[in-house]
Amino acid sequence: MDRVPAHRMLLRACALGVAAVVESAVTLPAYACVRVVAGRSRARRLVYRRLTRRVQALGPAFVKFAQIAGSRRDMLPPDLCDELSRLHDRVRPVSRRQAERAWRRAYGRSVPPFLARLDPGPMAGGSIACVYRGVLADGRMVALKVKRPGIDRVMRADLALIRRLARGAERLSRLRGMPVADLVGYVSEAILGQLDFQREAANIVTLRENLACVPDVDIPALHPELSRPTCLVFDYIPDLDTGTPRALPDAVRARLASAVLAAAHKMMFVDGFVHCDLHPGNVYVLPRGRAVILDAGYSVRLPEDVRKLIGEFFTCLAMGDGRRCGEIMLASMADAPDAERSGHAPGRAGEAFVADIAALVERSAGPGRAFDMASFGNGVFEVQSAHRRYAAADFAFPVMSLMILESTVRGLWPGVDFQQVGSSAGC
Question: I need a labelling partner for 187 at 20 to 30 A (CA). Which of 59, 169, 311, 393 fits?
Answer without folding.
Answer: 311
